[in-house]
Amino acid sequence: MRGNAALAALPMLEPVRHERADAARNRATILSAAERLVGERSAQTVTMDEIACSAGVGKGTLFRHFGDRCGLMRALLDERERSFQEDFIRGPAPLGPGAPARERLVAFGERMLEHIEIQGDLLVAAENGAPGERLRHSVYAAYRAHVTALLRDSGYDGDVGYLADVLLGALVSELVLFQRRELAMSPENLRACWGELVGRLLADTASGKGLR
Amino acid sequence: MRGNAALAALPMLEPVRHERADAARNRATILSAAERLVGERSAQTVTMDEIACSAGVGKGTLFRHFGDRCGLMRALLDERERSFQEDFIRGPAPLGPGAPARERLVAFGERMLEHIEIQGDLLVAAENGAPGERLRHSVYAAYRAHVTALLRDSGYDGDVGYLADVLLGALVSELVLFQRRELAMSPENLRACWGELVGRLLADTASGKGLR
DNA sequence: ACCACAAATGGACCGTAGTCCGCTAACCGT
DNA sequence: ACGGTTAGCGGACTACGGTCCATTTGTGGT
User: Which of these, A113, A200, A209, B123, could form a disulfide with B173 (CB 3.0-4.6 Å)?
Assistant: First the structure.
């Protein structure tokens, strides 16, 4: 029984053991205040003091709950993140299991591009913490495990982990936003490029379905 | 006079028009102080105040000369950077012109990996500025232009700019250090993976030389 | 040799992320 | 219901990157 290695490798945020009621209330208040502020201005310009003040709590409370700025931003993305992971692990094809690995990989990238399209600035804010932090975080580990598994399933015979890093590199929000804004590439164009990239990399593999 | 788009696209640091003598002296002092400090501790932990103090100049002078922290780090890398660019634009094959495009691309990546091996922390410090700054900087533009040209020369018929972004993504210092340190990949392994990546991407192209 | 002026300087100052620690009040066992 | 324990709180405090501007200093013209 395979196909479940990725499932076991889904760490994300473990629910804290018995959080006190007032703490839970504060966490929710903070999140909604942050969400509102980020909605009004760009995520980059909202300060932690503003959020604390607007939520009516002390600054220490913010950091106690979320560790640092990136942690808070990540928490804002968390719900969407969970549903994304849910979808590509257990959801319907072609994103979820059922479709050939190559198609799942294409769908994965397309979904990620949509995600960036919608949450771009927030994603960037969540990712630029300490150097390498992004890569060490469990979210990256989950993506990497998933892509690695797909590459293996598709019959790729090289270093699947390395290729996963490369492919995920093409989906880094900072880069995608650069391509969209600075290079003025359209979403459709990016989708097409991603599709071609995957196609080319997996061109001569068995691909678990033998197409092409 | 054309014939070398990549050559024309080499901006880097333009020599300032008539820098005052004391200013030049201070710049040198600052650079050597910074170099010493960065050599002693990790580049991440050295503060601007320390550098200023150690160089015996005011903090304002630092920022006047280098703009911001990243600028100073970049300046520390500048000499090596110039020689790298010189090498792949005009130097001997396979890095410079003369070899088939695909080989030049492989050599480019290998050289970059060596660069990261030696200057890793400094490169990271130089790159994590404001989001997207790295991509907007002229150094990235130069790399991108070079790789793009090589891909075109190798007969790749897709979106060469996009593929250049992807390939450069595999050479981002933050990622490479992650692979080296966290994933414990060896330099040789990384070289091999890079070579295979390039080979696979350019497998069925004319490659300007018709190998394979 | 001198002057006028732009370039350069330094350090006080600011905003922001993140830490620290004494106090408060929620929770659990009795 | 109550008291002891301790998670949680808040906001003063620190560290650091970056800005500002009054003052100094090098330089080119005369």
Answer: B123
